[in-house]
């Protein structure tokens, strides 16, 4: 026989309370782990004196950044 508890004037079985507890824990864990994905790692801002210089630096980092990752 199942143990019965009176909650808000109703009889509730212990197995129902166990399922509700596990379900609440699973839902809370899922909610806590969801959220915004972390953005890509951003380096320091580029302080270029002109738009051409900024484009050159970005192109240089794009071309040489892949080589460094391949070496590691």
UniProtKB/TrEMBL annotation:
Cell compartments where the protein resides: Mitochondrion membrane
Keywords per UniProt: Membrane, Mitochondrion, Transmembrane, Transmembrane helix
GO cellular component: mitochondrial membrane
Domain of life: Eukaryota
GO biological process, one term: proton motive force-driven ATP synthesis
Parts of the chain that traverse the membrane: 12-33
Secretion signal, residue range per the UniProt entry: none
Database matches in InterPro entries: ATP19
Pfam families in the record: ATP19
Statement: the UniProt record of this protein carries the keyword Electron transport: no
Protein name: ATP synthase subunit K, mitochondrial
């Amino acid at each position: 026989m199942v143990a019965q508890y009176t909650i808000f004037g109703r009889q509730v079985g212990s197995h129902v309370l166990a399922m509700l507890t596990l379900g609440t824990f699973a839902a809370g864990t899922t909610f806590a782990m969801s959220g915004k994905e972390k953005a890509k790692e951003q380096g320091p801002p580029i302080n270029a004196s002109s738009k051409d210089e900024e484009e050159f630096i970005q192109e240089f980092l794009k071309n040489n950044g892949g080589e460094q990752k391949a070496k590691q």
